[in-house]
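seq as requested:
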Amino acid sequence: MDTARFAPFDRACARELPEAVAGILEGWKGKEPPAIGFITTDDFYGCFLAWGERGDIPNYFSWQDAACPDFLYRSLVEVVDASRDVDLLQPSKEKWAFALAFLETLAKALRRLPEELFRRRGWSREEVTFFAAQSDGDYVRELLEESLKMLNERGEG
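struct tokens:
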């Protein structure tokens, strides 16, 4: 699937994701860098952030630290509303392609984050683990596993 349909989400992330990630990192009380998750619903209608211990990623759904920044929620809803050609309520090749395009867009946004955001806390980008998951649904495990690979690759953005 062409990631061009994710342009509103990409623009919102370019504008606001650095500040959101900086806020999480600056407020993080753990000794080790956190895991930061982009959590969406089964039909991708919106997105929120959750963060916690890296070793506790499988339990992200019970993490107490979470935020629903408007820029993530509204921009992904805009993409979903414009994607009426994909049935996001049923498992399908098209829905999985949508999920992969979502991950590609997130990966691009994360690669654009300035290294300084991480260095302020004495960490490197590689020490923070990013992932995406669904709160429930058809591709919970698959999205989580694929996101751990894609969002933590260290390529050029």
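The first strand starts at residue 35 and ends at 40.
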